[in-house]
Amino acid sequence: MAGGPAPGFLRHPDRVLDYRPEPGRVVVTFNGEVIADSDGAIALREADYPVVHYLPAADVRAGLLVRSQHSTYCPFKGTASYWSIRVGDQVSQDAAWSYETPYDEAGVIDGLIAFYPSRVDRIEVV
Q1: C-alpha dihedral over 37, 39, 42, 46, to 10 degrees?
Q2: How far apart are CA 80 and CA 74, in angstroms?
Q3: Alpha carbon distance 33, 124 (integer Å)
Q4: What is the pTM of this model?
């Protein structure tokens, strides 16, 4: 379920969030383990930021994620919830996020999960 119109576009109507299906398979690893493996990822290109891959929750090993209390707000996408990754004795704090009720314009990423490249071993498109 989407969260209404994004207020960010009222202030910045020229801002472009380009959501496209990623044609390759996206694989995320942490501490030597595959955390996520998806051929259904969405690639977001926004301003001059690096591409962010959002993966379907069904393609993420949910048992390795621990919901945290951390959240952030984006006026274009909404409020993001965060998860830490725990593999063995290694933890990566707030390494994954999801917009569980994004604004209408970001509805394509509703419930999908993204990962910080700096908080996992790697994110590969293969």
Answers
A1: 70
A2: 8
A3: 13
A4: 0.94
Compute the distance between CA of residue 85 and CA of residue 2 in angstroms, rounded to an integer.
26
Q: How many residues does the chain have?
A: 126
Per residue in 73-93, pLDDT (tens digit) is 999 999 999 999 999 999 999
Determine the Cα–Cα distance for residues 46 and 38; give it in Å rounded to an integer: 21
pLDDT digits (tens, 9 = 90+) for 33-73: 999 999 999 999 998 999 999 999 999 999 999 999 999 99
What CA–CA distance (Å, rounded) separates 8 from 81?
A: 19
Amino acid code (one letter) for 109: I
Task: For residue 119, give the amino acid letter.
Answer: R
